[in-house]
Design a protein that fits this description.
Distance between the termini: 22 Å
Structural class: mainly alpha
Order of helices and strands: HHH
Shape: rod-shaped
Number of helices: 3
Helix content: over 70%
Length: about 90
Amino acid sequence: MALIINVLFARPMKTTHKCLSRKNSIMLEKLTNLLAGMELVKIFPVGPRLSKEYKAAGEEYFHIRKKANQLTAGLECVNCFIDLTGALAFLGLV
């Protein structure tokens, strides 16, 4: 039973973590652009745009991270439920 539940959770978790990896690389790119462009920020008014892009990338990452955390918590809850049910069944048999 636990194996079936874990298999059902595997694909959504894998998809979510792949998306997290992509968003993390996008955030790293935005941060690199922000730090590398400090001289441009001083010369041209691009600071607000760069910080806005980084903030948007951070919000996207947050939402995907939240989904990944919910999937992980759901799987953990189901596994704990199965463990407790097994223990109760064992106690009922004894």
